[in-house]
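Exam prep: given the inputs below (a chain plus oxa(dethia)-CoA), describe the expected output before reading on.
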Amino acid sequence: MLSMSANTSKIPVRIAGTGSYLPAKELTNKDLESIVDTTDEWIFSRTGIRSRRIAAEGENTSDLATEAAKNAMEQAGITADELDLIIVATISPDTITPATACYVQHNLGAKSALAFDISAACSGFLYAMEVAQRMISDGNFKNALIIGAEKLSAFTNWDDRNTCVLFGDGAGAAVLTRGDETTGRILSTKIGTDGSQTGILNIPGGGSACPTTVDNADQKLASLAMQGREVFKLAVNAMKRASEAVIEEAGLTAESIKLVVPHQANLRIIDAIADRLTIPNEKVFVNLHKYGNTSAAAVAIALDEAHREGKIERGDNIVLVGFGAGLTWAAAAIQW
Ligand code: UT7
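Solution:
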C-alpha cells in the first residue's frame, strides 16, 4: 500500500529544530571480537560499522527519547507547554503498553500534548513525520515533537553474529511547526508498506503470537532476526523509488538536492542508492560507522548531526529516506 502527498495544504509545515542523544557506552567491533566469532575487518567491510552505543542498565528508550526531545525543543525555542503532539517511533518500547510517548510526555511535563507511538521499524521517524505533518497542516495541531528512539540492545541476541554486530541504541527528534511563506517547508512525503515480507526481518517472539515461556526462553526469540541478503536487495530498490518519487513530486532534480540523509543500516546500501540516484557520495550523510543501525532513530540522529555540523542551511533542499521491517519504506523532500 502506498501513500504519497505533494504538500499543497493551506498550512505549510516546517522543521523548527532537531536534537539527538546517544548513550555514553561505546561497543566497538574490537569489543565484539571477544563476544562472538567475528572480526573488525568483516564487520567494517560488509557494513561500514566500527562502533555502536549501548544504553546503561535502567536507561530506557523513553529516557533516550526525552534527552533527544529536549535538545530539539531547545533548538526550536519551544517549551513543553507549547507542545500539542508527541509521536515516538520505536520497535523497542519501554513496555508493550502504555506507549513510550506517554512516558516521554510525563518526563517533559508536556501535559497538554497528545502522545502515541508508531511501529514502522527503520521507517518509523519518517512515518511519524508524515502523520504529524498532516495533523498540523489540517489546522488542529500547532507544535509536534517527533522522535525516533531505540534501545535495540534489549532485543539483540548477543550469541548471534549475524545480527548482534549490526544494531545500536540512540534517539533523534525534531520539532515540527506551522510555517509561512518566509520559512522552509516539507515539500513532499511518501510512505509505503509490503506486508508480504514480514518474515525476513522481525522480532519473532515476545508478542502474543509467540510469548516468551520457560520452555522457549533459551531460544532468545524476542531478538531481532534478519535474512540479510533478501533485505539488502529490497532496501536498495525501495529507497531509490521512494527518493525519486518525493524528488519528482516536489518539483526538484537530483542536482538541486543539497543533502540526502538515508537510513543508516549498511554503507554498501547507501552507496548503491547514491549511485542509482546519480547523487555524489559527498552529498549523502553517513554516521553509521559511529552508531550502527539504530532503526527508527537512525534518520533522526543523522538529520540532527548533519544540521548541527552545518551541512544543512536555510533554503537547502534535502531528502530523507528510510527502509525497514514490515516491510516499510518512507521518504521526504524538505526545503529547509
Ligand atoms: O535496518 C533495516 C534494514 N536492514 C538492512 O538493510 C540490512 C541489509 N543487509 C545487510 O546489511 C547485509 O546482508 C548484512 C551486513 C546483514 C550481511 O552481509 P552479507 O554480505 O549479506 O553477508 P551474509 O549474511 O551473506 O554472510 C556471509 C558470510 C556467511 O558465511 P558463509 O555462509 O559464507 O560461510 C556468514 O556466516 O559471513 C558470515 N557472517 C559473519 N562472519 C563474521 C555473518 N555474520 C558474520 C560476522 N562476522 N558478524
